[in-house]
C-alpha cells in the first residue's frame, strides 16, 4: 500500500508521520510545492513545532516516510492520496472574507486527474465546505483516462500543540464515503489503516456530506463555547463575579463538561474563525440567513473580546501609551506551537502600535520573520523589537501584556522583572495564566480577564 499526502503543513506533516510510524508496511510520501518546507521536513529543524513530533518523524523517516517535491510521480505511484493543502478564507471576489478559497483543492484534483497512473482513493483531509467532494469527483471523472476514483472525506481533529497525543489517541476518526458498494470498500480500506492503532469503535463512518459538515460543526461548537464564556467574562468584570469560578461551577455539570471554558483574550488559529465564517457563508448560500447570523455572532464576540482587552490596557494606562515601552509575552495563538496564524496577539499588537506604543515581543517558538510578517512591518522598524527571552522583553517597559500561556512564563522571577521596569508597572494577563499573588506581591498593578 502506498500513500501520498499533498501538503506538508501543520496537518499533513504530523498526520502522515503518525500513519507511517504506526503502519510500518505502508509507504507514506508527503509532497509539497514549497521546496524550503520539504527541506525542513528532511532536517532536524522541522517547519512545525509540536511536542514529540521530531521523534515521531525520526522513527519513520527514510524507512517508510518520505518528504519530496516530486509531486506528479508520487501521485502516480500511490493507491491513496490525501489532499491536505490549505483552504484559507477567500480574500477576493464573491464571498470575500467569508467563503473558503478552494483553488488549491481544485488544482490538486486536476493534477491527480492529469497524472493518472491507476485507480485511486482520494481523501479530503483539508477542512472544506460541505459538498466539496462533488467538485473533486466531477473533476476526476471528467479525466476520461480509464481509471476510477473514489472520494472520501476524512477530516482531521488534531489541535496544534497536542497534535501527537491527539493523533496517537484520538476521540474518534471520521470517514465519509459514497453509499455505493465501491464507496464502502474505499471507506473500509482507509478504516483498516487507522485500525492498526485505533479501536474500531472510535472509527465513525458516515456519508460524504455528513463528514464534511461534521468538521465545520465541531469547530463551530468549540469556538462557540469560548465566545460564550468570554461573553460572561465581560459581565464578570462589571459585576465582581469571577469567570474561572463561574466556569468551574458550570463545568461540573456533566451535561456541560469542563473543557473549552477557559476565558481568554480570544481564540486564534487557522481554523476556528475561518471555519465559522465558511459555515455562516454556506448557510447564507442555502437561504438560511438567521442561521448564518447565529454563527457569525461567535466570531463577532471574539473580535469584541480582543477589543475589550485592548481597551482595558488603554484605560489602565491613562489612555496614553504613545512612546511607552510594552512587553509582549507570547505571540503564538496558544502554547506549544510556533503557529501565529490569526493569533489574538496580532490584533492586540496592531492596535497598540496604532497608539504609537513601542513593543518588545518575546515568544519561545514563533520566528522573528513570522511575527514581523503578521504585523505587516519590516525588519529594522524601530517600533518593534523582537527579543530572545522574557527578561530582555520586560526590561525598561511600563507594562507586561501576556498573550500566550507558555509554561515558562510561570517560572519567571517577577520580583526581579518588576525591579527592572518603569513605575507604575502594569501586568495584563490575557490568559489568567500567572498566579495573581505572585504578580501583586511583586508590586504590579494586575488586570485579568473576567476578574476585578
Ligand atoms: C490544514 C488544512 O488543510 C486546512 O483545511 C485546515 O483548515 C487547517 O489545517 P495546514 O496544514 O494548517 O492546513 O496548512 P499549511 O500549514 O498552510 O499547509 C499547507 C501546505 O500545502 C503548504 O505547505 C503549501 O505549500 C502546500 N500546498 C498548497 C501544496 O503543496 N500544493 C498546493 O497546491 C497548495
Ligand atoms: C482546533 C480544534 O480544537 C481541532 O479539533 C481542529 O482540528 C482544529 O481547530 P486548534 O485551533 O489547533 O484546534 O487549537 P485549540 O486548542 O482548539 O485552540 C484554539 C484557540 O482557542 C486557541 O487560541 C486557544 O487559546 C483558544 N482557547 C481554547 C480558549 O481561549 N479557551 C479554551 O478553553 C480553549
Describe what you observe in this structure:
The protein has 452 residues and is α/β, with parallel strands linked by helices. Helices cover 43% and strands 14% of the residues. The protein has 17 helices and 14 strands. The site of one uridine-5'-diphosphate-xylopyranose has 19 residues, from helix 9.
The termini sit apart by: 59 Å
Given as residue ranges, the uncertain stretches (5+ residues, pLDDT < 50) are none
Beta-strand portion reads 5-15%
Computed over alpha carbons, the radius of gyration is: 23 Å
Bound molecules: uridine-5'-diphosphate-xylopyranose
Mean pLDDT: 97
Shape, principal axes of CA atoms: globular
Arrangement of strands in the largest sheet: 3-2-1-4-5-6
| Biggest β-sheet strands, sense, barrel | 6 strands, parallel
Amino acid at each position: 500500500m502506498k500513500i501520498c499526502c499533498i501538503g506538508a503543513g501543520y496537518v499533513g506533516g504530523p498526520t502522515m508521520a503518525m500513519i507511517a510510524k504506526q503502519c510500518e508496511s505502508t509507504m507514506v510520501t508527503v509532497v509539497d510545492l514549497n521546496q524550503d518546507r520539504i527541506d525542513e521536513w528532511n532536517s532536524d529543524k522541522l517547519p512545525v513545532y509540536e511536542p514529540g513530533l521530531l521523534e515521531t518523524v525520526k522513527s519513520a523517516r527514510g524507512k517508510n516516510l518520505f518528504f519530496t517535491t516530486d509531486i506528479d510521480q508520487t501521485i502516480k505511484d500511490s493507491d491513496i492520496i490525501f489532499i491536505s493543502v490549505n483552504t484559507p478564507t477567500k480574500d477576493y471576489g464573491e464571498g470575500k472574507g467569508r467563503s473558503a478559497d478552494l483553488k488549491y483543492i481544485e488544482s490538486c484534483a486536476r493534477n491527480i486527474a492529469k497524472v493518472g497512473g491507476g485507480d485511486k482513493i482520494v481523501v479530503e483531509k483539508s477542512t472544506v465546505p460541505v459538498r466539496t467532494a462533488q467538485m473533486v469527483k466531477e473533476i476526476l471523472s471528467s479525466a476520461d483516462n480509464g481509471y476510477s476514483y473514489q472520494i472520501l472525506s476524512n477530516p482531521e481533529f488534531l489541535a496544534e500543540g497536542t497534535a501527537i497525543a491527539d493523533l496517537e489517541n484520538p476521540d474518534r476518526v471520521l470517514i465519509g464515503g459514497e453509499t455505493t458498494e465501491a464507496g464502502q470498500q474505499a471507506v473500509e480500506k482507509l478504516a483498516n489503516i487507522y485500525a492498526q492503532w485505533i479501536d474500531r469503535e472510535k472509527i465513525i463512518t458516515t456519508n460524504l456530506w455528513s463528514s464534511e459538515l461534521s468538521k465545520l460543526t465541531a469547530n463551530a461548537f468549540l469556538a462557540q463555547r469560548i465566545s460564550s464564556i468570554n461573553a460572561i467574562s465581560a459581565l464578570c468584570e462589571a459585576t465582581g463575579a469571577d469567570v474561572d469560578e463561574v466556569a468551574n461551577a458550570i463545568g461540573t455539570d456533566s451535561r456541560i463538561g469542563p473543557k473549552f471554558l477557559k476565558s481568554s483574550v480570544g481564540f486564534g488559529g487557522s481554523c476556528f474563525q475561518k471555519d465559522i465564517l465558511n459555515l455562516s457563508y454556506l448557510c447564507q448560500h442555502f437561504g438560511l440567513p438567521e442561521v448564518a447570523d447565529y454563527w457569525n455572532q461567535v466570531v463577532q464576540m471574539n473580535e469584541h473580546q480582543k477589543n475589550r482587552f485592548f481597551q482595558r490596557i488603554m484605560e489602565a494606562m491613562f489612555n496614553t501609551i504613545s512612546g511607552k515601552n510594552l512587553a509582549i509575552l507570547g505571540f503564538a495563538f496558544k502554547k506549544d506551537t510556533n503557529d501565529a496564524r490569526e493569533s489574538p496577539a496580532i490584533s492586540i499588537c496592531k492596535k497598540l502600535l496604532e497608539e504609537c506604543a513601542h513593543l518588545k515581543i518575546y515568544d519561545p517558538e514563533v520566528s522573528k520573520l513570522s511575527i514581523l510578517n503578521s504585523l505587516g512591518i519590516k525588519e529594522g522598524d524601530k517600533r518593534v523589537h523582537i527579543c530572545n527571552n522574557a527578561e530582555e522583553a520586560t526590561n525598561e517597559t511600563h507594562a507586561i501584556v501576556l498573550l500566550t500561556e507558555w509554561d515558562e512564563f510561570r517560572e519567571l522571577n517577577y520580583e526581579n522583572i518588576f525591579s527592572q521596569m518603569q513605575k507604575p508597572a502594569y501586568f495584563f494577563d490575557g490568559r489568567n495564566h500567572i498566579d495573581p499573588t505572585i504578580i501583586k506581591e511583586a508590586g504590579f498593578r494586575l488586570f485579568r480577564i473576567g476578574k476585578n
